[in-house]
Amino acid sequence: MTFIHKYPKAAKVAKANFVVAFIALAIGGFFGFVQALHRTDVFRGFFNSGEYYTLLTGHGVLLALIFTTFFIAGLFVWGVTRSLDREPENMSYTWSWFWLMTIGTVMATVAILGGLVPDSSIRAAVLYTFYPPLQAHPLFYIGLALVLVGSWMAGADWFWSYRKWRKGSPDERVPILTFMALFTMLMWYVCTIGLALEVVGLLIPWSLGWVTEIEPLLPRTLFWFFGHAVVYFWLLPAYYVWYAILPKLSGGRLFSDSMTRIVFIIFLLLSTPVGYHHQYADAGISVGFKFYAMATTMLLLLPSLITLFTVVASMEHGARQRGGKGYLKWIGKLPWDKPAFVGCALAGIMFAAGGFSGMINAGMNINILIHNTIWVPGHFHLTVGTAVALTFMAITYWLLPQLTGRKLKFKTLALIQPYAWFLGMTLMSNAMHRAGLAGVPRRTAEPQYSGFEFEPIFGTMAEMDWQIAIGGTILTISLILFLWVVIASWMAGQKSDKPVDDHIPEPLSGVEHTPAILDNMKLWFTLALILVILAYAFPLLEMVADGIFEPGALPRPS
Amino acid sequence: MPEDLSQPPESNESGKNWEEHNPDIEREITIDEFQPYGTLTLTLLYFLIVALMWVFMYFIEFGGNAPSIIE
Fold first, then answer.
1. pLDDT tens digits, residue range A472-501?
2. Would you call A258 an interface residue with chain B, using a CB distance cutoff of 8 Å?
3. Which residues of A are catalytic?
4. Does the ipTM surpass 0.85?
5. Which residues of chain B does A511 touch, with a Cβ-Cβ cutoff of 8 Å?
6. B5 touching A, CB under 8 A?
7. Residue A366 and residue B26: Cβ atoms within 8 Å?
8. Listed residue (A133, A131, A111, A132) closest to A123, CA to CA
9. Which of A31, A285, A501, A536 is 20 to 30 Å from A226 at the Cα level?
10. pLDDT tens digits for range B16-71
11. What is the pTM of this model?
Protein backbone atom coordinates (compact mmCIF):
# COMPACT_ATOMS: atom_id res chain seq x y z
CA MET A 1 0.00 0.00 0.00
CA THR A 2 1.26 3.41 -0.86
CA PHE A 3 -0.15 6.93 -0.77
CA ILE A 4 -2.48 6.61 -3.77
CA HIS A 5 -4.13 3.50 -2.35
CA LYS A 6 -4.64 4.99 1.11
CA TYR A 7 -5.63 8.49 0.01
CA PRO A 8 -6.86 8.37 -3.61
CA LYS A 9 -8.61 11.76 -3.48
CA ALA A 10 -5.59 13.61 -2.12
CA ALA A 11 -3.32 11.83 -4.61
CA LYS A 12 -5.48 13.11 -7.46
CA VAL A 13 -5.24 16.71 -6.22
CA ALA A 14 -1.48 16.46 -5.67
CA LYS A 15 -1.00 15.06 -9.18
CA ALA A 16 -3.14 17.81 -10.72
CA ASN A 17 -0.95 20.42 -9.02
CA PHE A 18 2.18 18.67 -10.29
CA VAL A 19 0.83 18.68 -13.86
CA VAL A 20 0.43 22.47 -13.84
CA ALA A 21 3.80 22.88 -12.10
CA PHE A 22 5.64 20.81 -14.71
CA ILE A 23 3.96 22.53 -17.68
CA ALA A 24 5.06 25.87 -16.22
CA LEU A 25 8.54 24.42 -15.68
CA ALA A 26 8.76 23.30 -19.30
CA ILE A 27 7.67 26.64 -20.79
CA GLY A 28 9.65 28.77 -18.33
CA GLY A 29 12.72 26.58 -18.74
CA PHE A 30 12.61 26.93 -22.52
CA PHE A 31 12.42 30.70 -22.16
CA GLY A 32 15.50 30.56 -19.93
CA PHE A 33 17.40 28.63 -22.60
CA VAL A 34 16.52 31.25 -25.21
CA GLN A 35 17.66 34.04 -22.90
CA ALA A 36 20.97 32.34 -22.14
CA LEU A 37 21.77 32.20 -25.86
CA HIS A 38 20.36 35.64 -26.63
CA ARG A 39 22.05 37.83 -24.07
CA THR A 40 25.41 36.14 -24.59
CA ASP A 41 25.02 36.80 -28.34
CA VAL A 42 25.59 33.13 -29.14
CA PHE A 43 22.27 32.93 -31.02
CA ARG A 44 19.66 35.67 -31.40
CA GLY A 45 17.46 34.04 -34.02
CA PHE A 46 14.62 32.84 -31.80
CA PHE A 47 13.16 36.26 -30.97
CA ASN A 48 14.14 39.88 -31.35
CA SER A 49 15.58 41.89 -28.50
CA GLY A 50 12.26 43.63 -27.82
CA GLU A 51 10.59 40.28 -27.25
CA TYR A 52 13.40 39.31 -24.87
CA TYR A 53 11.54 41.08 -22.05
CA THR A 54 8.40 39.06 -22.70
CA LEU A 55 10.49 35.90 -22.41
CA LEU A 56 12.17 37.22 -19.29
CA THR A 57 8.77 37.88 -17.74
CA GLY A 58 7.58 34.41 -18.72
CA HIS A 59 10.74 32.82 -17.33
CA GLY A 60 10.46 34.64 -14.01
CA VAL A 61 6.71 34.37 -13.46
CA LEU A 62 6.21 30.82 -14.71
CA LEU A 63 9.17 29.41 -12.80
CA ALA A 64 9.41 31.56 -9.68
CA LEU A 65 5.68 31.98 -9.04
CA ILE A 66 3.72 29.29 -10.88
CA PHE A 67 6.00 26.21 -10.85
CA THR A 68 6.85 26.76 -7.22
CA THR A 69 3.34 27.50 -5.95
CA PHE A 70 1.75 24.50 -7.65
CA PHE A 71 4.56 22.13 -6.68
CA ILE A 72 4.36 23.32 -3.08
CA ALA A 73 0.59 22.83 -3.09
CA GLY A 74 1.03 19.25 -4.32
CA LEU A 75 3.81 18.58 -1.80
CA PHE A 76 1.80 19.91 1.13
CA VAL A 77 -1.34 18.02 0.10
CA TRP A 78 0.82 14.89 0.26
CA GLY A 79 2.46 15.80 3.57
CA VAL A 80 -0.56 17.05 5.46
CA THR A 81 -2.80 14.19 4.30
CA ARG A 82 -0.18 11.61 5.16
CA SER A 83 0.86 12.92 8.53
CA LEU A 84 -2.68 13.67 9.77
CA ASP A 85 -3.94 10.45 8.23
CA ARG A 86 -7.00 12.09 6.68
CA GLU A 87 -8.08 13.07 3.19
CA PRO A 88 -8.97 16.76 2.57
CA GLU A 89 -12.18 17.67 4.41
CA ASN A 90 -14.27 18.68 1.40
CA MET A 91 -13.13 17.78 -2.10
CA SER A 92 -15.32 20.44 -3.76
CA TYR A 93 -13.51 23.07 -1.72
CA THR A 94 -10.11 21.50 -2.45
CA TRP A 95 -10.73 21.41 -6.18
CA SER A 96 -12.08 24.99 -6.09
CA TRP A 97 -8.70 26.38 -4.97
CA PHE A 98 -6.88 24.28 -7.50
CA TRP A 99 -9.06 25.52 -10.36
CA LEU A 100 -8.93 29.11 -9.16
CA MET A 101 -5.13 29.00 -9.21
CA THR A 102 -5.18 27.30 -12.61
CA ILE A 103 -7.55 29.84 -14.18
CA GLY A 104 -5.36 32.63 -12.77
CA THR A 105 -2.27 30.96 -14.21
CA VAL A 106 -3.85 30.67 -17.65
CA MET A 107 -4.87 34.36 -17.57
CA ALA A 108 -1.40 35.55 -16.56
CA THR A 109 0.28 33.26 -19.10
CA VAL A 110 -1.98 34.44 -21.93
CA ALA A 111 -1.15 38.03 -21.02
CA ILE A 112 2.59 37.27 -21.11
CA LEU A 113 2.53 35.24 -24.33
CA GLY A 114 0.40 37.93 -25.99
CA GLY A 115 3.63 39.90 -26.19
CA LEU A 116 4.90 37.44 -28.81
CA VAL A 117 1.89 38.09 -31.08
CA PRO A 118 2.53 41.02 -33.45
CA ASP A 119 0.34 44.08 -32.78
CA SER A 120 -1.31 42.38 -29.80
CA SER A 121 -2.78 44.74 -27.22
CA ILE A 122 -2.44 42.02 -24.60
CA ARG A 123 1.08 42.24 -23.22
CA ALA A 124 2.84 41.81 -19.89
CA ALA A 125 6.53 42.47 -20.40
CA VAL A 126 6.91 43.73 -16.84
CA LEU A 127 9.47 41.19 -15.60
CA TYR A 128 9.13 39.24 -12.39
CA THR A 129 9.08 42.39 -10.27
CA PHE A 130 6.32 44.13 -12.29
CA TYR A 131 7.50 47.58 -11.18
CA PRO A 132 5.43 50.55 -12.33
CA PRO A 133 5.75 52.45 -14.60
CA LEU A 134 6.05 49.22 -16.59
CA GLN A 135 2.43 48.31 -17.12
CA ALA A 136 0.86 44.95 -17.98
CA HIS A 137 -2.55 44.11 -19.38
CA PRO A 138 -5.15 43.78 -16.55
CA LEU A 139 -5.41 40.07 -17.35
CA PHE A 140 -1.90 39.59 -15.94
CA TYR A 141 -2.57 41.28 -12.62
CA ILE A 142 -6.04 39.75 -12.19
CA GLY A 143 -4.64 36.31 -13.05
CA LEU A 144 -1.89 36.63 -10.45
CA ALA A 145 -4.45 37.84 -7.89
CA LEU A 146 -6.50 34.69 -8.50
CA VAL A 147 -3.39 32.52 -8.02
CA LEU A 148 -2.79 34.33 -4.75
CA VAL A 149 -6.35 33.89 -3.48
CA GLY A 150 -6.24 30.22 -4.51
CA SER A 151 -3.02 29.73 -2.54
CA TRP A 152 -4.65 31.30 0.52
CA MET A 153 -7.58 28.88 0.15
CA ALA A 154 -5.15 25.97 -0.15
CA GLY A 155 -3.52 27.02 3.12
CA ALA A 156 -6.97 27.26 4.73
CA ASP A 157 -7.65 23.72 3.52
CA TRP A 158 -4.63 22.40 5.44
CA PHE A 159 -5.57 24.39 8.56
CA TRP A 160 -9.08 22.93 8.24
CA SER A 161 -7.66 19.40 8.21
CA TYR A 162 -5.46 20.30 11.17
CA ARG A 163 -8.40 21.63 13.21
CA LYS A 164 -10.44 18.52 12.52
CA TRP A 165 -7.48 16.32 13.45
CA ARG A 166 -6.89 18.35 16.61
CA LYS A 167 -10.47 17.70 17.79
CA GLY A 168 -9.85 13.97 17.58
CA SER A 169 -6.33 14.18 19.02
CA PRO A 170 -6.39 16.96 21.63
CA ASP A 171 -3.23 15.87 23.43
CA GLU A 172 -0.99 14.91 20.55
CA ARG A 173 1.83 17.07 19.22
CA VAL A 174 1.49 18.50 15.74
CA PRO A 175 3.08 15.96 13.36
CA ILE A 176 6.28 17.40 11.95
CA LEU A 177 5.18 17.26 8.28
CA THR A 178 2.02 19.20 9.10
CA PHE A 179 3.89 21.58 11.40
CA MET A 180 6.29 22.59 8.63
CA ALA A 181 3.47 23.03 6.10
CA LEU A 182 1.37 25.16 8.44
CA PHE A 183 4.25 27.42 9.49
CA THR A 184 5.20 27.91 5.86
CA MET A 185 1.63 28.96 5.15
CA LEU A 186 1.51 31.29 8.17
CA MET A 187 4.59 33.00 6.74
CA TRP A 188 2.88 33.10 3.33
CA TYR A 189 -0.20 34.80 4.82
CA VAL A 190 1.97 37.49 6.43
CA CYS A 191 4.07 38.25 3.37
CA THR A 192 1.31 38.19 0.77
CA ILE A 193 -0.45 41.08 2.52
CA GLY A 194 1.99 43.34 0.65
CA LEU A 195 1.36 41.74 -2.73
CA ALA A 196 -2.42 41.79 -2.30
CA LEU A 197 -2.35 45.50 -1.41
CA GLU A 198 -0.10 46.24 -4.36
CA VAL A 199 -1.92 44.22 -7.02
CA VAL A 200 -5.52 44.70 -5.95
CA GLY A 201 -5.22 48.18 -4.46
CA LEU A 202 -2.87 49.80 -6.99
CA LEU A 203 -1.97 47.85 -10.12
CA ILE A 204 -5.38 46.49 -11.17
CA PRO A 205 -7.14 49.91 -10.88
CA TRP A 206 -4.18 51.51 -12.70
CA SER A 207 -4.10 48.93 -15.52
CA LEU A 208 -7.87 49.26 -15.98
CA GLY A 209 -7.49 53.04 -16.30
CA TRP A 210 -9.54 53.82 -13.19
CA VAL A 211 -6.50 55.55 -11.74
CA THR A 212 -4.10 57.55 -13.88
CA GLU A 213 -1.19 58.13 -11.52
CA ILE A 214 0.58 55.99 -8.96
CA GLU A 215 3.83 56.69 -7.22
CA PRO A 216 6.49 54.12 -8.17
CA LEU A 217 7.96 53.81 -4.67
CA LEU A 218 4.81 52.57 -2.92
CA PRO A 219 4.10 49.54 -5.17
CA ARG A 220 7.82 48.84 -5.29
CA THR A 221 7.96 48.76 -1.49
CA LEU A 222 4.83 46.62 -1.26
CA PHE A 223 6.34 44.28 -3.82
CA TRP A 224 9.48 43.78 -1.75
CA PHE A 225 7.38 43.36 1.41
CA PHE A 226 6.38 40.17 -0.40
CA GLY A 227 9.24 39.81 -2.86
CA HIS A 228 11.93 38.50 -0.59
CA ALA A 229 9.70 36.60 1.82
CA VAL A 230 8.42 34.68 -1.20
CA VAL A 231 11.96 33.33 -1.48
CA TYR A 232 11.38 31.60 1.84
CA PHE A 233 8.01 30.38 0.60
CA TRP A 234 10.00 28.53 -2.08
CA LEU A 235 12.82 27.57 0.22
CA LEU A 236 10.86 26.25 3.21
CA PRO A 237 9.26 23.45 1.16
CA ALA A 238 12.78 22.54 0.01
CA TYR A 239 13.75 22.49 3.71
CA TYR A 240 10.60 20.39 4.23
CA VAL A 241 12.10 17.82 1.90
CA TRP A 242 15.61 18.09 3.38
CA TYR A 243 14.36 17.70 6.96
CA ALA A 244 11.60 15.16 6.45
CA ILE A 245 12.77 12.95 3.60
CA LEU A 246 16.48 13.45 2.85
CA PRO A 247 17.68 11.85 6.14
CA LYS A 248 15.74 8.70 5.29
CA LEU A 249 17.10 8.69 1.73
CA SER A 250 20.59 8.92 3.28
CA GLY A 251 19.91 5.81 5.33
CA GLY A 252 19.47 7.63 8.63
CA ARG A 253 17.05 9.69 10.66
CA LEU A 254 16.31 13.38 11.09
CA PHE A 255 18.77 14.57 13.72
CA SER A 256 16.36 16.67 15.78
CA ASP A 257 12.65 17.38 15.78
CA SER A 258 13.13 20.49 17.97
CA MET A 259 15.70 22.09 15.68
CA THR A 260 13.37 21.60 12.73
CA ARG A 261 10.51 23.38 14.45
CA ILE A 262 12.74 26.20 15.71
CA VAL A 263 14.03 26.83 12.19
CA PHE A 264 10.52 27.15 10.77
CA ILE A 265 9.52 29.49 13.61
CA ILE A 266 12.53 31.76 12.97
CA PHE A 267 11.61 31.92 9.29
CA LEU A 268 8.03 32.85 10.18
CA LEU A 269 9.31 35.65 12.42
CA LEU A 270 12.02 37.08 10.19
CA SER A 271 11.11 36.39 6.57
CA THR A 272 9.01 39.47 5.94
CA PRO A 273 10.81 42.39 7.64
CA VAL A 274 13.77 42.05 5.25
CA GLY A 275 12.37 43.53 2.04
CA TYR A 276 14.31 46.80 2.12
CA HIS A 277 17.50 44.93 1.39
CA HIS A 278 16.24 45.04 -2.21
CA GLN A 279 15.83 48.79 -1.94
CA TYR A 280 19.14 49.97 -0.51
CA ALA A 281 19.58 52.17 -3.58
CA ASP A 282 16.02 53.57 -3.48
CA ALA A 283 15.60 57.17 -2.45
CA GLY A 284 12.66 58.00 -0.19
CA ILE A 285 13.26 55.34 2.48
CA SER A 286 15.24 56.35 5.53
CA VAL A 287 18.48 54.54 6.19
CA GLY A 288 17.32 53.35 9.63
CA PHE A 289 14.65 51.14 8.12
CA LYS A 290 17.14 49.80 5.61
CA PHE A 291 19.47 49.00 8.50
CA TYR A 292 16.64 47.18 10.33
CA ALA A 293 16.07 45.11 7.18
CA MET A 294 19.80 44.33 6.96
CA ALA A 295 19.84 43.17 10.58
CA THR A 296 16.85 40.86 10.13
CA THR A 297 18.32 39.54 6.89
CA MET A 298 21.61 38.71 8.59
CA LEU A 299 19.68 37.05 11.44
CA LEU A 300 18.09 34.78 8.84
CA LEU A 301 21.51 33.24 8.32
CA LEU A 302 20.95 31.61 11.71
CA PRO A 303 18.16 29.19 10.71
CA SER A 304 20.04 28.39 7.52
CA LEU A 305 23.15 27.53 9.52
CA ILE A 306 21.04 25.42 11.91
CA THR A 307 19.73 23.70 8.81
CA LEU A 308 23.27 23.15 7.56
CA PHE A 309 24.11 21.45 10.82
CA THR A 310 20.88 19.44 11.23
CA VAL A 311 20.60 18.23 7.65
CA VAL A 312 24.29 17.38 7.27
CA ALA A 313 24.26 15.63 10.66
CA SER A 314 21.22 13.63 9.54
CA MET A 315 23.03 12.64 6.35
CA GLU A 316 26.15 11.76 8.31
CA HIS A 317 24.02 9.58 10.57
CA GLY A 318 22.73 7.80 7.48
CA ALA A 319 26.23 7.36 6.05
CA ARG A 320 27.60 5.98 9.32
CA GLN A 321 24.70 3.52 9.57
CA ARG A 322 25.70 2.42 6.06
CA GLY A 323 29.25 1.79 7.24
CA GLY A 324 30.76 5.27 6.77
CA LYS A 325 33.88 6.14 8.76
CA GLY A 326 36.34 9.00 9.31
CA TYR A 327 35.97 12.77 9.21
CA LEU A 328 35.08 12.99 5.52
CA LYS A 329 35.28 9.43 4.15
CA TRP A 330 31.71 8.77 5.30
CA ILE A 331 30.50 11.00 2.44
CA GLY A 332 31.42 8.20 0.03
CA LYS A 333 28.93 5.89 1.76
CA LEU A 334 25.99 8.12 0.90
CA PRO A 335 23.76 6.76 -1.90
CA TRP A 336 25.23 8.76 -4.78
CA ASP A 337 23.55 6.36 -7.21
CA LYS A 338 19.99 7.25 -6.14
CA PRO A 339 18.48 10.18 -8.10
CA ALA A 340 16.24 11.52 -5.32
CA PHE A 341 19.11 11.62 -2.84
CA VAL A 342 21.62 13.01 -5.34
CA GLY A 343 19.32 15.85 -6.42
CA CYS A 344 18.58 16.93 -2.85
CA ALA A 345 22.23 16.69 -1.75
CA LEU A 346 23.58 18.63 -4.75
CA ALA A 347 20.84 21.21 -4.27
CA GLY A 348 22.04 21.64 -0.68
CA ILE A 349 25.65 22.13 -1.79
CA MET A 350 24.56 24.81 -4.26
CA PHE A 351 22.54 26.48 -1.53
CA ALA A 352 25.65 26.74 0.62
CA ALA A 353 27.37 28.61 -2.24
CA GLY A 354 24.29 30.80 -2.69
CA GLY A 355 24.45 31.59 1.01
CA PHE A 356 27.71 33.42 0.47
CA SER A 357 26.46 35.62 -2.38
CA GLY A 358 23.33 36.20 -0.29
CA MET A 359 25.47 37.67 2.49
CA ILE A 360 27.00 40.07 -0.02
CA ASN A 361 23.54 41.07 -1.24
CA ALA A 362 22.33 41.66 2.29
CA GLY A 363 25.15 44.01 3.34
CA MET A 364 24.17 47.67 2.95
CA ASN A 365 27.54 48.84 1.68
CA ILE A 366 28.86 45.90 -0.32
CA ASN A 367 25.45 45.41 -1.94
CA ILE A 368 26.21 48.50 -4.02
CA LEU A 369 29.05 46.58 -5.66
CA ILE A 370 26.68 44.11 -7.27
CA HIS A 371 23.41 46.04 -7.28
CA ASN A 372 21.44 45.48 -10.52
CA THR A 373 24.26 43.46 -12.07
CA ILE A 374 23.99 39.90 -13.34
CA TRP A 375 25.52 38.79 -10.01
CA VAL A 376 21.98 38.88 -8.59
CA PRO A 377 20.52 36.38 -11.12
CA GLY A 378 23.68 34.34 -10.48
CA HIS A 379 22.72 34.28 -6.81
CA PHE A 380 19.08 33.32 -7.22
CA HIS A 381 19.84 30.65 -9.79
CA LEU A 382 21.79 28.99 -6.98
CA THR A 383 19.09 29.43 -4.37
CA VAL A 384 15.77 29.23 -6.20
CA GLY A 385 17.02 27.80 -9.48
CA THR A 386 18.93 24.98 -7.82
CA ALA A 387 18.34 24.65 -4.07
CA VAL A 388 14.58 24.79 -4.63
CA ALA A 389 14.03 23.65 -8.23
CA LEU A 390 16.50 20.75 -8.13
CA THR A 391 15.11 19.59 -4.78
CA PHE A 392 11.59 19.68 -6.21
CA MET A 393 12.66 17.73 -9.29
CA ALA A 394 14.64 15.20 -7.27
CA ILE A 395 11.93 14.51 -4.74
CA THR A 396 9.47 14.03 -7.60
CA TYR A 397 11.39 10.82 -8.32
CA TRP A 398 10.39 9.64 -4.85
CA LEU A 399 6.90 11.16 -4.65
CA LEU A 400 5.63 10.26 -8.10
CA PRO A 401 5.58 6.49 -7.47
CA GLN A 402 3.54 7.14 -4.32
CA LEU A 403 1.08 9.36 -6.17
CA THR A 404 0.69 7.16 -9.24
CA GLY A 405 1.31 3.65 -7.86
CA ARG A 406 3.88 3.19 -10.65
CA LYS A 407 7.60 2.54 -10.41
CA LEU A 408 10.09 5.05 -11.75
CA LYS A 409 11.32 4.36 -15.29
CA PHE A 410 14.69 5.22 -16.83
CA LYS A 411 16.53 5.36 -13.52
CA THR A 412 19.87 5.97 -15.23
CA LEU A 413 18.52 9.06 -16.98
CA ALA A 414 16.96 10.14 -13.69
CA LEU A 415 20.40 9.80 -12.07
CA ILE A 416 22.19 11.75 -14.81
CA GLN A 417 19.64 14.57 -14.55
CA PRO A 418 20.63 16.10 -11.15
CA TYR A 419 24.35 15.77 -11.94
CA ALA A 420 23.74 17.54 -15.25
CA TRP A 421 21.79 20.29 -13.47
CA PHE A 422 24.63 20.73 -11.00
CA LEU A 423 27.22 20.97 -13.78
CA GLY A 424 25.13 23.35 -15.89
CA MET A 425 24.40 25.61 -12.95
CA THR A 426 28.03 25.60 -11.80
CA LEU A 427 29.11 26.91 -15.21
CA MET A 428 26.25 29.39 -15.62
CA SER A 429 26.10 30.75 -12.11
CA ASN A 430 29.82 31.22 -11.49
CA ALA A 431 30.08 33.13 -14.79
CA MET A 432 27.09 35.26 -13.82
CA HIS A 433 28.63 36.13 -10.47
CA ARG A 434 31.96 37.05 -12.02
CA ALA A 435 30.35 39.02 -14.85
CA GLY A 436 28.37 40.92 -12.22
CA LEU A 437 31.60 41.91 -10.49
CA ALA A 438 32.75 43.30 -13.83
CA GLY A 439 29.58 45.43 -13.89
CA VAL A 440 27.56 43.51 -16.51
CA PRO A 441 23.93 44.54 -16.00
CA ARG A 442 20.97 42.24 -15.45
CA ARG A 443 17.58 42.40 -17.26
CA THR A 444 19.28 43.34 -20.52
CA ALA A 445 18.86 41.75 -23.94
CA GLU A 446 22.08 43.13 -25.39
CA PRO A 447 24.48 43.86 -22.54
CA GLN A 448 27.54 44.22 -24.75
CA TYR A 449 27.18 48.03 -25.25
CA SER A 450 29.22 48.92 -28.32
CA GLY A 451 32.21 51.14 -27.55
CA PHE A 452 32.28 50.06 -23.91
CA GLU A 453 34.33 47.32 -22.28
CA PHE A 454 33.66 45.44 -19.09
CA GLU A 455 36.82 44.58 -17.18
CA PRO A 456 36.68 41.15 -15.53
CA ILE A 457 38.69 40.55 -12.39
CA PHE A 458 40.06 37.42 -14.07
CA GLY A 459 39.15 35.51 -17.23
CA THR A 460 37.52 37.16 -20.23
CA MET A 461 34.00 38.27 -21.10
CA ALA A 462 33.91 35.82 -24.02
CA GLU A 463 34.73 32.93 -21.71
CA MET A 464 31.99 33.98 -19.27
CA ASP A 465 29.46 34.30 -22.08
CA TRP A 466 30.29 30.81 -23.30
CA GLN A 467 29.99 29.44 -19.77
CA ILE A 468 26.54 30.98 -19.48
CA ALA A 469 25.45 29.66 -22.89
CA ILE A 470 26.89 26.16 -22.35
CA GLY A 471 25.59 26.05 -18.78
CA GLY A 472 22.12 27.11 -19.94
CA THR A 473 22.18 24.42 -22.63
CA ILE A 474 23.17 21.70 -20.15
CA LEU A 475 20.39 22.88 -17.83
CA THR A 476 17.91 22.61 -20.69
CA ILE A 477 19.06 19.06 -21.48
CA SER A 478 18.71 18.22 -17.78
CA LEU A 479 15.18 19.65 -17.77
CA ILE A 480 14.24 17.57 -20.83
CA LEU A 481 15.60 14.46 -19.09
CA PHE A 482 13.51 15.24 -16.02
CA LEU A 483 10.32 15.74 -18.02
CA TRP A 484 11.01 12.60 -20.07
CA VAL A 485 11.47 10.43 -16.96
CA VAL A 486 8.37 11.90 -15.28
CA ILE A 487 6.10 11.52 -18.31
CA ALA A 488 7.36 8.00 -19.08
CA SER A 489 7.00 6.86 -15.46
CA TRP A 490 3.58 8.46 -15.08
CA MET A 491 2.25 6.97 -18.31
CA ALA A 492 3.99 3.63 -18.53
CA GLY A 493 5.71 2.85 -15.21
CA GLN A 494 5.16 -0.63 -13.85
CA LYS A 495 2.18 -0.71 -11.46
CA SER A 496 2.91 -1.84 -7.93
CA ASP A 497 1.31 -1.75 -4.47
CA LYS A 498 4.66 -0.60 -3.10
CA PRO A 499 6.42 1.19 -5.97
CA VAL A 500 8.91 2.89 -3.65
CA ASP A 501 10.01 2.62 -0.03
CA ASP A 502 7.84 5.42 1.35
CA HIS A 503 8.49 4.86 5.04
CA ILE A 504 9.87 7.82 7.02
CA PRO A 505 11.57 6.84 10.29
CA GLU A 506 11.13 8.91 13.42
CA PRO A 507 13.76 11.56 14.30
CA LEU A 508 16.85 10.64 16.28
CA SER A 509 15.86 13.23 18.89
CA GLY A 510 12.10 12.96 18.71
CA VAL A 511 9.12 15.12 19.53
CA GLU A 512 9.26 14.02 23.19
CA HIS A 513 12.27 16.36 23.52
CA THR A 514 10.50 19.28 21.85
CA PRO A 515 9.14 22.06 24.10
CA ALA A 516 5.37 22.44 23.72
CA ILE A 517 5.63 26.22 23.23
CA LEU A 518 7.11 25.62 19.78
CA ASP A 519 3.68 24.43 18.61
CA ASN A 520 1.92 27.62 19.76
CA MET A 521 0.98 29.04 16.37
CA LYS A 522 -0.94 32.04 17.72
CA LEU A 523 2.08 33.22 19.71
CA TRP A 524 4.55 33.01 16.82
CA PHE A 525 2.11 34.45 14.29
CA THR A 526 1.46 37.46 16.56
CA LEU A 527 5.18 38.05 17.08
CA ALA A 528 5.73 37.87 13.32
CA LEU A 529 3.07 40.53 12.75
CA ILE A 530 4.64 42.80 15.40
CA LEU A 531 8.05 42.59 13.71
CA VAL A 532 6.47 43.42 10.35
CA ILE A 533 4.69 46.43 11.83
CA LEU A 534 7.99 47.66 13.32
CA ALA A 535 9.66 47.38 9.92
CA TYR A 536 6.97 48.73 7.66
CA ALA A 537 4.38 50.88 9.47
CA PHE A 538 6.27 54.19 9.53
CA PRO A 539 7.84 54.11 6.07
CA LEU A 540 4.54 53.12 4.48
CA LEU A 541 2.78 55.90 6.37
CA GLU A 542 5.33 58.34 5.00
CA MET A 543 4.75 57.09 1.46
CA VAL A 544 0.97 57.46 1.59
CA ALA A 545 0.92 60.67 3.65
CA ASP A 546 0.48 62.81 0.54
CA GLY A 547 -2.29 60.59 -0.80
CA ILE A 548 -2.10 57.11 -2.29
CA PHE A 549 -2.99 58.25 -5.80
CA GLU A 550 -1.47 61.72 -5.53
CA PRO A 551 2.20 61.03 -5.51
CA GLY A 552 4.69 63.58 -4.40
CA ALA A 553 7.75 61.85 -5.76
CA LEU A 554 9.07 61.75 -9.32
CA PRO A 555 9.35 59.95 -11.64
CA ARG A 556 5.77 58.85 -11.89
CA PRO A 557 3.74 57.30 -14.68
CA SER A 558 0.88 59.38 -15.95
CA MET B 1 1.73 9.01 21.73
CA PRO B 2 2.78 7.20 18.57
CA GLU B 3 6.51 6.78 18.05
CA ASP B 4 6.53 8.30 14.59
CA LEU B 5 4.21 11.22 14.06
CA SER B 6 4.93 11.49 10.38
CA GLN B 7 3.40 8.08 9.83
CA PRO B 8 -0.26 7.17 9.64
CA PRO B 9 -1.27 5.02 12.60
CA GLU B 10 -1.91 1.92 10.52
CA SER B 11 1.68 1.81 9.33
CA ASN B 12 3.24 -1.35 10.71
CA GLU B 13 6.78 -0.35 9.78
CA SER B 14 7.10 2.68 11.99
CA GLY B 15 9.21 2.75 15.08
CA LYS B 16 12.80 2.20 15.95
CA ASN B 17 13.19 -1.01 13.99
CA TRP B 18 13.40 0.63 10.61
CA GLU B 19 17.11 -0.06 10.43
CA GLU B 20 16.54 -3.77 11.01
CA HIS B 21 14.31 -4.00 7.94
CA ASN B 22 16.59 -1.99 5.69
CA PRO B 23 19.19 -4.07 3.81
CA ASP B 24 21.37 -0.99 3.08
CA ILE B 25 21.97 -0.35 6.75
CA GLU B 26 24.87 -2.15 8.40
CA ARG B 27 24.15 -1.17 11.98
CA GLU B 28 21.79 1.07 13.91
CA ILE B 29 23.38 4.08 15.60
CA THR B 30 21.46 5.55 18.51
CA ILE B 31 21.55 9.20 19.48
CA ASP B 32 23.93 8.44 22.36
CA GLU B 33 26.40 6.72 20.04
CA PHE B 34 26.27 9.32 17.26
CA GLN B 35 29.15 11.80 17.21
CA PRO B 36 28.79 14.12 14.20
CA TYR B 37 32.50 14.86 13.71
CA GLY B 38 32.00 14.83 9.94
CA THR B 39 29.38 17.56 10.19
CA LEU B 40 31.75 19.62 12.32
CA THR B 41 34.53 19.17 9.74
CA LEU B 42 32.29 20.19 6.85
CA THR B 43 30.94 23.18 8.76
CA LEU B 44 34.46 24.42 9.55
CA LEU B 45 35.46 23.95 5.90
CA TYR B 46 32.43 25.99 4.81
CA PHE B 47 33.28 28.79 7.24
CA LEU B 48 36.85 28.80 5.92
CA ILE B 49 35.63 29.10 2.32
CA VAL B 50 33.21 31.90 3.27
CA ALA B 51 36.01 33.77 5.08
CA LEU B 52 38.29 33.49 2.03
CA MET B 53 35.47 34.70 -0.23
CA TRP B 54 34.99 37.74 2.01
CA VAL B 55 38.68 38.54 1.66
CA PHE B 56 38.33 38.17 -2.12
CA MET B 57 35.36 40.55 -2.15
CA TYR B 58 37.29 43.03 -0.01
CA PHE B 59 40.05 43.22 -2.61
CA ILE B 60 37.55 43.62 -5.43
CA GLU B 61 35.80 46.48 -3.66
CA PHE B 62 38.73 48.27 -2.05
CA GLY B 63 41.93 46.84 -3.55
CA GLY B 64 42.02 49.24 -6.49
CA ASN B 65 41.22 52.26 -4.30
CA ALA B 66 38.60 53.24 -6.87
CA PRO B 67 34.96 52.51 -7.56
CA SER B 68 34.85 49.22 -9.41
CA ILE B 69 31.61 49.65 -11.38
CA ILE B 70 31.59 53.30 -12.41
CA GLU B 71 34.95 54.15 -13.85
1. 999 999 999 999 999 999 999 999 999 999
2. no
3. 228, 232, 379-381, 442-443
4. yes
5. 1, 5
6. yes
7. no
8. A111
9. A31
10. 578 888 888 999 999 999 999 999 999 999 999 999 998 888 777 776 666 555 54
11. 0.94
